[in-house]
Amino acid sequence: MKADEINDLFEGLEDLGFDDLENVSVYTKNTEEEPNKKVQERQQTDFLYDRKIVCPVCNSNITVRAVKSSSIRVVSRDSDFMIYYQDPSPMLYDSWVCVKCGYAAISAQFNHLTSTQTRLIKEKICSKWKPKAYEAIYDIDTAIERYKLALLNAIVKNAKSSEKALICLKLGWLSRLKNDNENENKFLQQALEGFIQAFEKESFPIAGLDESSATYLIGELYRRLEDNTNALLWFSRVLCNRNAKNKIKDMARDQKYLITQERNEEKTDEQLTADSTTIKKQGLFSGLFNWSK
Ligand SMILES: [Zn+2]
Fold first, then answer.
1. How far is the CA of 260 from the centre of ligand 1 (A)?
2. SS3 of 144, please?
3. Cα separation of 198 and 211, whole Å?
4. How far is the CA of 131 from the centre of ligand 1 (A)?
5. Measured in angstroms, how far is the CA atom of residue 82 from the centroid of ligand 1?
6. 25 in any annotated domain
7. Cis before residue 35, ω within 30 degrees of 0?
8. 35 CA → ligand 1 middle, Å
9. Average pLDDT, the chain
């Protein structure tokens, strides 16, 4: 837009004392985006801090990055408990990695290792690890790499099913942030298998979930993976559980309703197809019967 056109927008305001509006533009120009991005990055680092810890595997002094709790802002939630945060998302920083030896785990599990697990990680992870440095701010791909490392460590140390399932669930969520449907489903499927195993073998809470929340999550993972029969079964279990909180019962009811609605729509579609076939058939045979009239 030319300067005189912009000036036209404010025609009439001169009399009110605004006689210097020639250079006023309504919208910020694109050329200003670059410095804005830098400011955003600087702000993101302001929300992060480095924590000094000792790696329980190699005993090195290391630093792990985390989001300051005062900076965490929840934006929304998905029906499988995924939380969307305002940047920076704490989910991107929750897999801690020792860059010296390759040991990795979700922060809550990082310091909980038995001597057998330490030995296994030294044998199967540390012996192969090539030290790596990470950027100050993690993007989704960096986070995925770090969670995959945590999953590999969890497999090597024979971690509980719930620990592996939670890592897989977060890998599914991170894939969702990238709109990577194929990998999301792959990791949600692994999470589902792990939560079912944990449900059968471990005592509650599993991965921080009480019994009814874990039951609901299993149902919801089945639903997302398009196994509605099993999803309905697990949602019904939530609704029959006298100890389940109202909130989780409401969620189970909502998701059950979604499936029923979907099935009704499918039935309507099938009915419409069937009806049109009947009409065609009637048309086909109507001529045959007309002779009797
Ligand atoms: Zn280490």
1. 50
2. helix
3. 11
4. 10
5. 30
6. yes
7. no
8. 38
9. 88
Is the pLDDT at 226 greater than 50, yes or no? yes
User: Quick one: pLDDT band at residue 228, thresholds 50, 70, 90?
Assistant: very high
Using CA atoms, how far apart are residues 56 and 99, in angstroms rounded to an integer? Answer: 13
- Is 27 domain-assigned? yes
What is the CA(197)–ligand 1 centre distance, in A? 30
The rounded Å distance from CA 174 to ligand 1 centre is 25
- On whether residue 21 sits in a domain, the answer given is yes
- The rounded Å distance from CA 99 to ligand 1 centre is 7
Residue 191 lies in a domain: no
DSSP letters, 159-191, are --HHHHHHHHHHHHHHHHHTT-HHHHHHHHHHH
Q: How far apart are CA 43 and CA 38, in angstroms?
A: 8
259 by DSSP, 3-state: which? Answer: helix
Question: How many A from CA of 137 to the centre of ligand 1?
Answer: 21
* Number of separate domains in the chain: 1
- The parent domain of residue 14 ranges over 1-43
Output the CA 112–ligand 1 centroid distance in Å: 14
pLDDT in tens, 144-178: 999 999 999 999 999 999 999 999 999 999 999 99
For 85, 142, 152, 184, the CA distances from 100, given in Å and listed in that order, are: 30, 17, 16, 30
CA of 54 to the centre of ligand 1 (A): 8
Whole-number Å distance, alpha carbon 206 to ligand 1 midpoint, is 27
Exposure of 284 in the CB half-sphere (CA atoms within 13 A): 6
Residues 6+ away with beta carbon under 8 Å from 120 = 156, 157, 158
